[in-house]
Structure formats: C-alpha cells, structure tokens
C-alpha cells in the first residue's frame, strides 16, 4: 500500500485520469436534462451577455428563484432587443392596428372633453402606446388634449396647448390593458381602446386637432419614459 502522506507519482495521476476519461467515453449520452429554477447566461467572447434564459428581472439581469421566468436576447451595448417573460405575452401573438384617418382636422369648441378620434386593439402584446398629433389654437384660446381607454375609462393627464400655438401633442402611455411585458399578473387578456379627447379651456376661438401622425404600440425597452399618466407634452 502506498504511503498516503506522500504525493502520488505522475504516472499514477495519468493512469487515474485515463481511467476517468475511459469511463466518461463509455457512459451513455444524456438524451435530455432539466433543472428546477435558476438562470443560464450565454456570453460572447468578451463576456457580455447575449442570451439569458430562466429566472430574470424585468431588464433581463439574473434574478432569484422568486423572479419570473423569461427569455432575453441582447444586442450590442447590452441592449435588450427581444424579450418574452412569464406572465406577459412579450412578442408572441402580435397584432397590428389598421390606421383610420379623418379627411379633415376636427375643430373643438366644447369646454368639456369630447372624443375626436377612436381606435382600438384586441390583446395588445406590448405595454406602451405612443401617440403624436398636430394641434392648433386660435389667438387668446387655450386647450387640452388627452388619451382615454374606452374599455376601462382610464384617461391620461392632459397636454396643455397654449394660445395661438401650433405644434405636436405627444403621449407615452403605459396603458391600462393588462398585457405586455410590464404587467407580471396572469390572465391579462383585456382589449385596449385608444381614444383622443380634446377641449377648449379658455377663450372663444377654436382648438383644431389633426389626425394623429403616430399611433403605435411600443415597449418600455424602447420608450423607458412612458408613464401611467401618459407623460404628455406639447412642442
């Protein structure tokens, strides 16, 4: 018997290594495997993440066992370019609204909000509505424009339009329909109605609202400044 206090010889180490390799080569290949929880990160040659699979936080970083399961794809610079997360449709089952344009702008003189444009989408797959529309006010006349969800009655904050102004009212709305990556609750199958409301606040002139130039679904990854009040602005 060899003395255990002495280091093994190189020959013995090589023999043991060969035995282990032979045993590994004779082992049957694993047809499938699974784990319960955890996260797998696929890195490029520089150590940057390119794919993340498993428990992940909303931004795709590795999460704990209580975080939702997801699949994230990264582009250059660590930017998430595709994502699907448990409890959210992500980019599955996409639908595209068909834009409908009025032949002329709508003139508003009401002191209370009135609907001027309507749209909607079933089961939106993304969580942000981005809308831009051209608005003109007469001299000594101010107005307000907002968005509303026809199904829930939820409205955004209003974009204030000063007197004798001409410019774009913009909204970045984290909409109330429970779909998309933002909301992690299950069974989010609600439809979304995107309506444009406008009113005259002061003066006796007209508030003229044009058909939205942009009205689209987007993601918090693309528009991180989106808020539940619509983040309204006018420039």
Q: In the CATH hierarchy, what is the architecture of the largest domain at level 2? A: Sandwich
- Mean pLDDT, nearest integer? 84
CATH topology of the largest domain: Jelly Rolls
Sum up the overall morphology in one term.
Answer: rod-shaped
* Largest pleated sheet: 6 strands, antiparallel
Instruction: Extract low-pLDDT stretches.
Output: none
**How many domains is the backbone divided into?**
2
Alpha-carbon distance between the two ends? 88 Å
> How large is the count of helical segments?
1
**The CATH C-level class name of the largest domain:** Mainly Beta
Q: How many strand elements?
A: 14
User: Helix/strand/pairing class, anyone?
Assistant: mainly beta
Alpha carbon gyration radius: 28 Å
**Strand-residue fraction?**
35-45%
List the helices and strands in order.
HEEEEEEEEEEEEEE
Portion in helices: under 10%
Q: Characteristics of this structure?
A:
235 residues, mainly beta, Jelly Rolls, 6-stranded antiparallel beta sheet, 4-stranded antiparallel beta sheet, 37% strand
